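pipeline stage [seq->struct] | target=Ferric reductase-like transmembrane domain-containing protein | organism=Streptomyces caeni | residues=243
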Amino acid sequence: MTTMPLTTAPLALPFEVSFDGPGLWYATRATGLVALLLLTLCVTLGVLTTVRFTSPKWPRFVTVGLHNNTSLLTAVFLALHVLTTVVDSYTDIRLTDAFLPFAANYRPVWLGLGTVASDLLIALIVTSLVRVRMGHRGWRAIHWLAYVSWPVSVVHALGTGTDPATVWGSALVLVCLGAVLGASVWRLATGWPERRGLRLAVATAVVAVVLAGWGWASSGPLAPGWSQRALAPVPPASATRAS
């Protein structure tokens, strides 16, 4: 009995793997926008949790459960956003740039803000895993980092992204701003009833930040030519034709 010689052939994939095509460019944009939406939902649910919102059709444990699950989804899409950004060879972004802010050669300010927001969320995740050993007071103090990471993420998305100048990109950012601002106004209206001065000071600070942010965005990321002024890369020709 003769045996046929075994031959090994290279595995042929039904698709082409490329690290410099428009696929990763689209993936980076998509994962970043989804992460921002999820972070916005997470912050909004966190505010609803602090005011102990509840109703017969919406018990409080639903809000807490959604808040926890949304936090996990935010971490997943944040990791995908970082991975696709680093793997994409179209821009020179190293893995260390995803953790060390303002150290990148490519657009260090806007990329650095995204790194700051990412580091804050990582600190929040790590401390949540060891919450029992930290104690509630220490964990709660660090938990406020989520509220800091959100505006930093918005500025990062506006300054770095190529989508805010579009109609749908502007609408997405406005939805995020409206959700968090609406929840914040509710928090100010219902919380700290004995501290009227504190509520007024916080409300004034929020209005000032919103006005300053709108002035910067309208003359910057939302104005024509921002990609060139911010040194944004020109997308591949195939991606330009497809968009």
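stage status: PASS
auto-comment: Confidence is low (pLDDT under 50) at residues 6-15, 237-243. The first helix runs from residue 22 to 50.
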